[in-house]
Amino acid sequence: MKRWPTIPLSGAMFLITVATVSGLSVNAHSFTQHCSDHTIAVTLPSVGIDATIAGTLCWRGPLNSTRTVQILLHGGTYDRHYWEDAGQPWRYRYGSIATAAGFATFSMDRLGTGLSSHPPGDLVTPRANADAVYGVIEALKGGDIEDVHFERVMLVAHSLGSVVAVEVASDPASYPNAVDGIILTGFLHAVNITGFTALYESQQLGPNDAYPGDSVYGISSYFTSLDGWENRLDAFYLDKVNELGWPTVDYDVVMRDEAVKSTGTTGEAAVLGNPAVLFNPESTIDEIVGAIMEGEFFSSKSLGISVPVLVVMGQRDAAFCNVPTLPTDPFAADCSSAEALMAHEAPFYSPAACLQAVAIANAAHCLNLHTNVLVTDAAMLTWASLYVGANAGRPAPIACP
Fold first, then answer.
1. pTM of the entire structure?
2. pLDDT-based confidence at 145, cuts 50/70/90?
């Protein structure tokens, strides 16, 4: 049987094969994938407004309450397209691979993106996003989608979506019985100041025809990356070949990424630090560092999470990690191995989180859009199958203590 490389999960080695993911049969041809689009009315108590969230539910085979559903949360300047590149039949399609592994998926446009509501951008905060996600969870569990009362829900998140996932999972008082596990990609309790400053400089500030927004902090409250796929490439990808001379990025994928890109908001950016400082081209590095240190990247709220957590990072994610192409940053993390990630992140999680970590070689921030994405997908689905389980009618194969 053809095998993929072994992937370290917190030091343990899990063997991943093309045909199986931790004993769970993966055969995309066993069942035709079915998908249905939905618009869900949600209430956002943190900002005092109502909104609608658009998303797509996908599954294979019979759909019933024992099917674990993964809610997919994209990052900033993306929408649900992040999880499914329609230009590819099998690669860059995490959602389709997850349904082949036995899960259902609900890929949603987060608040302020895609076909979901676009309130004033200063109201589109991580907390408001968390309110919206919890509304979706209640709809999934309450039988409002396809008349199925899903019993088990997990969050699979990227970047700013990971900030939202932490918000939901760490506050059981506000979001009771919300989720049974979370996967956090492209997010750490760290920051590479040089890399993050470059990321901010790649954003296009000011209103545009699609998202005029309103004005807060003296700028438009909606923003996106600078026009041109090369700017997208510089901001989110690793533009080089790996040790074997194979490309780590497909430029056609980056061009499609540029064509369907969405927005971020000042309300979301505030979690990273004061936008009036971060978006000001006259801000000094010391001012930017001070603003970021006051943001959420160093918050300990994740200690409140009591469900299993997997952290997945590209080893060359310049927003959070120390990388060879940038000066060493004392605020950045060592992403060179699962063990190094665990050492950095463990103080921010309780033992109840059963924290695991994966470091993906030859990948930067947008893990789902690098050429080795199938390695990332396999690691994520192996963990999800072991620590959450695709069948809510049975306990997860590995129980957290």
1. 0.89
2. very high
